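Re: [ENG-882] Designed sequences occasionally contain unexpected residues at chain ends

Forwarding the minimal case from QA. C-alpha cells:
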C-alpha cells in the first residue's frame, strides 16, 4: 500500500462522512457524496482493494468517523508472554481483537484472553495506547488505536478458540512468526519492559 496516499484518503473519507452526517443542505450533501467517492477511489489506488469492496465496507460506517479500537491482553508466566496463533494467517499475536460495544476495555481484555487461549485472567493495568500508523504494521484502510492491558492468570486451561489454532508462552528470544497486522516485535519488547519495570508509566503515542 502507498501509506501517504492511504492517509490522505482516510482523512478525506472522515471529512465526507462528517458532512453526510451533519449537513442538511442537499447541495452540500451531494458534494460530500462526491468527496466520499473520490476518497474511496484514492484508497483503491493506495490499497489495491477494489472500489466496490471498499464501498461495501464503509457503507456500514455511520455518523462521525472515529478510529477503531484493538485491545490486547498481556499475560506473563515467569519470563514468557502468552501468544496465540491466528487461524486467518497462521502467525502469532497477543490475544485480543476489536473492542465490543457494551464492554469496558478491561472487560474486553479478559474476554479476549479467555476466548482465544482458555485462560481466566484479571486485568491489572493499562500499559500502552498506540496509534497503529506510528508503528511497523502493514498499512490499514482503517485508523486504529491499539490498547495493551496487563493481566494476571487466575485460572482456566490453555486451549484453542474459534479464531486461534494454537496457544503458548514464549520468551523474547524464541518468538514465533508474528502476525504483523496485529503485533510487532517492538511492541512485544515494550511489554517485556513493563514486566521488568513495574513502575514504568503507561505509554501513549
Amino acid at each position: 500500500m502507498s501509506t501517504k496516499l492511504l492517509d490522505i484518503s482516510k482523512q478525506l473519507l472522515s471529512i465526507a462522512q462528517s458532512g453526510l452526517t451533519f449537513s442538511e443542505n442537499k447541495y452540500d450533501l451531494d458534494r460530500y457524496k462526491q468527496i466520499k467517492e473520490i476518497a474511496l477511489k484514492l484508497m483503491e489506488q493506495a490499497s489495491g482493494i477494489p472500489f466496490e469492496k471498499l464501498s461495501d465496507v464503509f457503507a456500514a460506517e455511520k455518523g462521525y468517523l472515529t478510529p477503531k479500537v484493538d485491545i490486547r491482553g498481556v499475560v506473563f508466566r515467569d519470563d514468557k508472554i502468552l501468544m496465540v496463533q491466528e487461524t486467518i494467517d497462521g502467525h502469532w499475536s497477543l490475544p485480543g481483537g476489536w473492542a465490543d460495544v457494551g464492554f469496558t476495555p478491561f472487560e474486553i481484555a479478559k474476554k479476549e484472553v479467555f476466548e482465544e487461549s482458555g485462560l481466566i485472567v484479571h486485568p491489572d493495568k493499562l500499559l500502552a495506547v498506540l496509534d497503529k500508523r506510528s508503528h511497523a504494521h502493514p498499512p490499514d484502510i482503517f485508523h486504529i488505536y491499539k490498547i495493551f492491558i496487563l493481566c494476571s492468570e487466575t485460572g482456566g486451561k490453555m486451549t484453542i478458540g474459534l479464531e486461534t489454532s494454537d496457544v503458548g508462552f514464549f520468551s523474547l528470544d524464541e518468538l514465533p512468526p508474528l502476525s504483523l497486522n496485529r503485533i510487532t516485535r517492538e511492541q512485544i519488547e515494550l511489554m517485556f519492559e513493563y514486566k521488568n519495570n513495574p513502575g514504568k508509566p503507561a505509554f501513549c503515542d
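QA comment: On inspection the terminal residues look reasonable. The two ends are 23 Å apart (CA to CA). Proposing we downgrade this to a documentation issue.
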